[in-house]
Records
---
Amino acid sequence: MSQTAARASQVDQIKSQMMQVMGITDPAEFQRVARDYCKDMALEMTLPAYMRLFTRLNKLIDKKREMFDGLRKKTDMIAHVLKMAMDDDEAVETFKNALEMEDKEAKISPDLSAQKRNAGNQAFQKKKDQDALNLYSEAVFSSDVTTEAGKKDCTLALANRSAVWMKLKKYEECLDDIEAALYLKYPQNMLYKLLDRKAKCLAALGQVDDAKTCYNRVILLLKQSNLEADKQEVWKKDITAELEKLKSAVNKPLEKKLPNVSLKSPNKTIPQFSDAVELAYNPLVGRHGMATRDIAVGEIVMLDTSLSVHLICGTRMTNCTHCMKTISLTTGKPSPLIVTARFCSMDCLLQAMDTYHPVEAKVNIEKMFWNKKEERFEEMSGNVLLTYRSITQKPLQFFLDNSDYDEVNDMFGVEFTSPEDICHYSDYGNLFNLTAHRERKTKDELLSLSIRTAIFLVLLRHGGYFGEKETAFGATMNASEAHLCGIIFHLQEGIQYNLHCVDCVPASTLSGITSPQTREVGSAMFPTLLLLNHSCDQNTVRLNINGNQVMMVAKRKIKAGEEISDNYGIHYLSLTVEERQEALLKGFAFCCWCTACQKDYPRMKSLRTQLPEDIEDKFDKKREDIKEMFRKGKHQECLNLSKEMIELLETAVVPAPHRNYELAALCLQSCLWKLYGNTD
């Protein structure tokens, strides 16, 4: 029998066996089933790895769905999904492939960093300082930090870049690059040169004692250098001269960088609010913010910092992994663990390394959202990535110590047991007590949450979150894992309805008074912002600032006793009341009953435009002045005029809704983004 005939016979035997197992007698029916299966498999293989995992586990549970539907405790649901998954060879193989897959953005030429560094050296010698900065920066980010040779390339590029900053008298930038080079293990035999540069920077900044310490360390390090004895003596002589100069110098106090915006008078118990806002509770609307006094237009009512953030996959190479700021190429820092994570400063890098980054770098979850067919990232709901970060940024023991996490307190932040109690943005009580509409969860939603939790558990095992384990693919959970999985499930439920996008605006689009063209950078949990209820005609405007913060400003005068409202992206200007109700019910599980809905406000094109002639003239004059000042870069003056425009309408008792209120609010928003907002 020929080889071809033998293979055909073997295929027929396999086909016959499969038909018996499937209970199919008609070859044509088997052919149709096999063809449909292959189509499904081909489609599934084009999905990002995370979605393939989810789809595989979903199909697996659906085969014995009645078993899952009979479970009542969420830990039992998760345990059932995990066991089914880990007992299935195909599911385990899908996990392994997802974790071991190549990251398309992590490919780096091993020679590129050295080439860029050498080009930077030539530019520096020719006194082309900006070119040198750019080339050294390219060398920094084209080094493979996952190898020892790559780490060395990176440290050399950082050190050379620090020399340019030193020449330009940018001492803080120089010091930050030096710290990065030291952290990444700059070659020991060359350390003396780097620390000499550090000492000079410290001296220039008036940090005399630190400079002296640094100079003395340089003398000790000369012994480890490759310098000949006579050259070491020259270095010692020069350092001694520098130390002599510093004998009469006096330490200067460190200049604290003041924030570009701050609350003048914060609320004593919730310091993210101004003292003009207090948190209240009503069974009909839940927790909400109330004005304790009249609030003027343009007044800052809230400045909130994120409790947890995560970039979308598409911005991981352009924005800081930790604070989400757009990274400047010439000051950015690479991760010491993975090529595809970057930081805006050493401060952010060190905070990340002390918390979540060692675990996350081992997993590299972003690559699991890569769509091979379309060659782009599939940007999933921020719920997945935010839940992940909310866990990885805290140690396991922190969660084990929180045994009552699921006892949701609707009065959290409203009632305090002591006058000294403070609801800080970093308090995880903000996460544990989120409104989540848990009583409305369907069995399909519970299954989705259980599958995602099981996936999280395997990823955390793989990343070393629980310490060293023989395998990440165990079919059962120990007590610590079961407790953490309960928390993961709980957090997902709350984050789903309470996360916010973090946006930035391309600086090139902020050239005039126009609606800011925002671009999504990532997602965040803003624990104070989420306490505010939605209105389709909110009385505030908010914008993202300083990377991971959000600022809220009064859009009009807010009277004492009035509710402070936010807008969830669904506004009366662009959608009908029916469209808004449908969107809010689907996305946020509530029906809105704000004034705009009750009175069925018209959309923008149908708003009233009539004004008293004198008011219209004054309004138009201010609007033209704003446009002219904006072009001249006088943005603070523009902001002040924007407030005056709104006050003009309010003083004239122009009833809302009105087109001119919206035009003035647009001016206010444009000026705020230009002055304070995240830009790239």
Note: The first helix runs from residue 3 to 22.
---
Amino acid sequence: MDPKFSLQDVLRCHLCENPMPKMFCDICQLNICDPCVGAHLVDESKNHKLVPFRKRIYKPRCQKHSFEQCELHCEQCDIPLCVQCVSSKEHKHHKKVNVLINFENQKEVLQINLQELEKTIYPKYQEIASTVIKQKADLDKNSKKMKRRLDKQEKDWHREIDDIVKILKANVNGLEYNARNALEKQEVEIQHKMAEIQQSIMDIKKLLEYNDINAVSAYKSRNDEFKRLPHKILFSLPSIYPYKIEKEPIYKHFQTFSPLIIRAKGMFSMDSPCVKPTPTIKPFMNEPQIVSYIRTGSAPCVVCCLNDEEIWMSNSLIENIINLNNIDGDLVKSIQTKSGSPPSDITVTTSGDLVYTDSWDRTVNIVRDTHIETVIRLQGWIPCCLCCTSSNDILTVMNSEGGEQSKVVRYSGFREKQSIQYDDKGQPLYSTSFGGFYIAENINEDICVTNRKEVVVVNKVGKLRFRYTGSQSKAANGGFYPRGITTDSHGRILIADCDNHCIHIIDQDGQFLRYIDNCKFDCPIGLCIDSEDNLFVAENHITGNQEVKEIQYYMTKQSS
């Protein structure tokens, strides 16, 4: 075995065969131990380049002449060449470069490839993988939501069909009752006539038996009377035939249940790696739709989404209970206020904790699981409504105890951080309005407050941006009485107009966009929006409307 080229033998110095040489001559392609360095450099017939053994560069062996080292590289053929190959006709007119220069060039290419893989391509695949994971999560969430809605629809259909069957059975019972009464009345009359006929028969037989001339002469026949038979009572119960449910209109109603089409739409682009695309603004539906009715068992006037599946709600006028219902209407949890008084308003922190204001004892309280903790207690001020911001601050609207002043206070960690009360001219921003305030933060951090007959919007530092007093068309009919307020993912502001029984939608600069006025609202009061821009509306707690409407007002891929 040749120790110079064997892979099986331990590495040795090519001059003295000592094991584990520490140096390597790139020019001669020889392993050199420390004692042999001087002897190797003595040979001045050619240049030498000694490098640490770990940094050695082995010149490749020729593919045709296995014992020859390659000094050049053929660029056309992209193979290393030994001296014999260089002189051959095959490579005579080909461009050749030093094999080490080609090696360095290839290392530069490798560095570029490595950098591109690490900095661009792999992060892009990570981004794509994250997108696919999110799509799977969205698919799971949306399919579960669809199944729950179908389950709810199934229950509603069963309930409606049960109601229809009960009504039909009641009608049958009514028909049966009336017919039975008529038959029983006739039966009594017939029995009475039969008794009279039997009596007549007995009387005639006596007359015939005793031959009493006076009695026979006095006899008056009733046969003509008895021959007038009773009227026939005819009745017919409605026939019940098998009713085949027409499936096609039902399928047509649920247009989303078309065959699933999976198609590749373009390709992921490398032009802008790891940059999220700007979200497109969803178009409004021509006619907003009621997606579902959430039966609550109470009449809520304040609502707040905990997530896409559950909603906190309460009647802030008469009930000291705050209920958590799922979108099917099932009660998940109930919380009784600490003071026993109705909560003025409710909100949810970014971590999912319920927060409510209690105007009766001037407090703001947080609910963690079932434990209630008072985190703010006011002196001289009465908290009204509140909301949680994107930074997890709490914005609270409050009135002075005398009713002369109103302001918005920002709490960070339940410590007062900001007070918003006056405009640049020193004039009050808000009119005193006991029970008339609702508040929401927009995506641009504007603070939106409904206040008597207007909506007041200030920026995050408290500078007035605009006041919205309703659109002229509705104002001409019955004024503008804003109550609940919320914002969606596009920064649109939605305002409940109780007197006009509709929802106003304006942009973040106060420009009117449209109404939602086709959903048969009865004094809408409480509003909230989930992460998919589904709107939940609580209405007319005075008449005891025990349901919350879920409204879809943006086009979706299915509806478009």
Note: Residues 99-210 form the longest helix (112 residues).
---
Amino acid sequence: VHGIIIPQKLRQNKMGCTVSPKRKQEKPDSAGSENAAYSIFVIKKENLLQQGTPKEERKEAENFIDFDIFVIGGGSGGLALAKEAAEYGAKIGLADYVKPSPKGTTWGLGGTCVNVGCIPKKLMHYAASAGEALLDNKEKGWEVPGKIQHDWVKMKENVSKHIKSLNWGYQKQLEKLGIQYFNKYASFIDPHTLSLNDEANTRIRAKNIIIAVGNRPNYEGIPGAKELAISSDDLFWLEKSPGKILIVGGSYVALECAGFLANVGCDTTLMVRSIFLRGYDQEIAMMIGHNLAKHKVKILTETIPLELQKAEEGKIRVRYKSLKDSSENFEMFETVLLAIGRKPITEGLNLEAAGIKPEPNGKLRVNEKEQTSTPHIYAIGDVADGKPELTPVAIKTGRLLARRIMGKSEELMSYAYIPSTVYTPIEYGFCGLSEEEAISKIGNENLEIYQSYFKPLEWNSVTERKEDSCYSKLIVQKDTNIIVGFHYFGPNGGEVTQGYAIALSCKTTKQQWDESVGVYSTNASEMLSLKKTKAITYSPKKVEQYLSLIHISEPTRRYAISYAVFCLKKKKKNR
């Protein structure tokens, strides 16, 4: 089964393994060598468990549990791989241990997405949107008696119940499939051996090992942060409303939390060092920022926190600095939420013992088959360097890897045209290239950008909603007419984007979209009627307006405007 050739004449070596005295062993490749080592262990273990073996050696052998595949991490990717491989008959083990956050928050099986990410975030986003819809309904004829108030405790209880039901469901699925689950912290002893760091001194031996440990929030660089601040690991489990809250960061986590917290009545301030949503389409990132401001989120741009201090009555004194003029100030908050990035949980794995060296950012480099530098050890999900940090990506990667390991398929994961959505009050769904990426990879002269501002029909009777509340954009490569970027800023962004993502992955053309018939009157059909093209080269005035929105320092702004004028005069179109 493991590729070992056993000749007729045998002898037994000191390890208890049967080997040939005549056959010279050829030097195998690295993968073959590792698998041979695993096979030798299996034979040795079986011999040690025979009657007559000294008690100490027998006890040592009993502490070892061997598996075809062992998964470190019980998040979306790890669970998907384990369940898929078990369906094909593999012997699977899985270890998952949640180290409490600095505030002491912990949770059950399922990983970040289920417990402190996608699921609770989206449920609270829905709750906040429901309150906003109640206000809209006044102008649609519904009488809403009294002042609308939100009950944080009620919302949190219902969200927690749903999460715990998912935790329980995952455990029952593992039991049903015969997957052995360990609520333990696994670390490497050698490339095929893991310690579960328990009192029983349990050792795991596995032919293939999957690292799917994910990321945790970063607290570094701000004095007092670990002691006083919370992160997304804690927010969804708070027993009471966070009250007056400061959110630090410009990531999608920061913007999403700012949106739903403001909509449930929290006094919300967002502190951003530079720009919103780095790496995303910046035109829509700015729209999100403006929309958050309309939802009563106070935004401090070009500002950084310097220190968090404990104040009276449980409040937090935040000292901060403006990067515009270097002035310092302070303000009191009830809660401070950090959303300044995440780092992989690889420090405690003892990867050196497995022959793996993490990248400087702590992540693991993998090839197109998800293999690390040690071929039988794989990394999937957020811990894999350079891969999208998205739950559906981890799930699909895990399933495909399980099929390849079990010899059922050779299909590799494709990372092209992966859709996603930012769940701010107005949702932003996208797939493919941002405008900045398209200009960089394809070039201005080979791009056509179609756009439209629109107001959804369901908002038509709501006077507070503007005609240009929502926006859609398609980025088309001219020479092929293929759509390379899809961007939708409007209601139900995730639902709209999911359908169109299939069309992008099939490399459909703008002509094919134009020939399609939309469903009247839907927001999604806006994407099929885009006629107005957008000029990519801006005038000096447009450049000045753009730069005023992205909050850069005055010297940089002056330089950028003068350089834009120079480029326009010289007709440097590719600038």
Note: The chain has 16 helices and 23 strands.
---
Amino acid sequence: MSSVFGQQEDFDVTAYFGGAPPLSISVGYLVVLGFGAIFSVFTTCIVMFNRFFTGATETSEHFNTAGRMVKTGLTASVIVSQWTWAATLLQSSNVAWTYGVSGPFWYASGATIQVLLFGVLAISLKKVAPNAHTVCEIVRARWGRGAHMTFLFFAFCANIIVTSMLLLGGAATVNALTGMNIYLASFLIPWGVIIYTVVGGLHATFIASYIHTAIIFGILITMILVVYIKVYSSDQIYEMLDDVIKSSPDDCKLYMEENFPNYIYVEELHKCGMVDGNAEGSYLTMLSKGGLMFGIINIVGNFGTVFVDQSYWQSAIAAKPTAAAHGYLLGGLCWFSIPFSLATSLGLASVALRLPLTANEAGSGLVPPAVAHYLLGNGGATAILVMLFMAIVSTGSAESIAVSSLVSYDIYREYINPEATGQQILFVSRVVIVVFGLLMGALSIALNAMGLNLGWVYLFMGIVIGSAVIPLWNLMTWKKASGKGAIIAAWSGLVLALISWLVTCSIQSGKITIDNLGKNEPMLVGNLFAILSSGLIHAVYSIFIDGEEYDFSTLNEKILLVENDTSGLTAEEQDPVALDKAYKWITRRGWLLTFILIILWPVLSMPAGVFSINYFAFWVLLSIVWGFTAAVVVIFLPITESIDEITVVLNGMWRMVTCQGPAPPKMDTSAGLKEVET
């Protein structure tokens, strides 16, 4: 029997992709290797041109901090890029396929508030530890080596889990769309980021992230317009979703025979009828038990992958103080549109069109490529593949530079060579980037072999790293936060999370298996135990056992620069009045928007019950407008803010090409670089 792809051999007639990829394997190699090579060359050239024409000096400080002078627009763009994982594009549509309209909302809101609130920590860092290169340096300076090793473990776990999800989702999609061997894809994808990250460090990562984000938003807007304007309307999607819940298994079987004659309907595998736990079984309601449960898991898990992930601390370190506040707020709001708008279009369309997707395909992140292929043919599948690759390499480069900083400053400089020079730090950083890329490819292969998919790992991440969240928040914001209490809280929270996860699975299912452990209830319990138990333990220990107040004014003195590159550390950047103002600004707005996104918005949508056709039209319009606005901000704001620097580089290139003599005087971008004191 043949598939919609016209291939005959070994086709699984119960699954949309069924082992018959719509694109040739050459497309897979072209995207994975070709795009990786192109972006490596392009980004490396931009970095080199910037150094040559602006006079930027390459130091280990600049390699790992980008000079601490990144502006608001680029900070926002980088945050969007770092937070756009494979899961953002793939898992968000899976929860739309599973729960309906509540899925995209809870994915977006449940992962936006962490970025908004991290802005508070970003400004706190600028106030008390502007010299820092990593979060673990701050832990060591305040709480000592015991806490340093503890939180270094959790930081590495965060980097490993995030990178694993990137490669799991990416490899599964490349395999489904092109037939490229899934293990080979896992191994080759990291090479798309290694080259330019090794050459340009954090600065190159930021430039590449901007380009990747612009491409992602371009494809996002295209998909929204195709679903709700070009091919269908919100009214048509509404009516089709309403028809789905009214269908019996026999109706669904008949529908598949008429519309997908080359597939066989299997009730246990395919979507049909009402949604368990949703009001009236509808996809068109926020009153969803499963959606809410996923939202809570999402909130807890993503606190870990923001607060414990060195890449977000690194972006805060790289940003100017004002950019740290405005950039994180703007970045969070712009990022919201990606899962919300994309999944509201492609995710809901997958159910409305009754594509023969299985739960395993959806869990592996194949909902967006399936819908894109169905509506746009091979061009749509290729667009999703490119979009996914952009997300993987942008976040992958951020994770690579984060791990290299942790190893360079928190292992090599702290425990191996305390007198390390800038050149030695640079060398170690570059070696680690290469080694980490290779090891993560191997880890992804192992996870695939174990049968763990993107959805499983996404729900599991909070159990592993959630217990480090509240201690790290307290590190930057609470004078009485105890170092010993933080160590006890982090390890106890992890142990309690794992025990509660396993016990809940055993009670619920009677048997502990990978599939049973991946159910919502055990994951929810484990995630809640991780973050709440550690927070409670740390608070009790700090208040009743070891509550000595810490003097934050002494913190920065314990964090030493390698070279005395003081760019971004001048008196103007460390003005206490301006920092206090920025702290109040981000604190008020961060908490207000958090309240709106996870409390007020869901509560206001409850009276609507099952959405009317007009209410759904408004919901779709909101997702479209949000997506367009975010695209404009993220693409154009970084350009307008950096127009002077761009002009200098372009003018220098033009004079060189036209042989008009030496370039104009270079910009003094390294004024903060001083001779190393001996």
Note: The chain is about 75% helix and 0% strand.
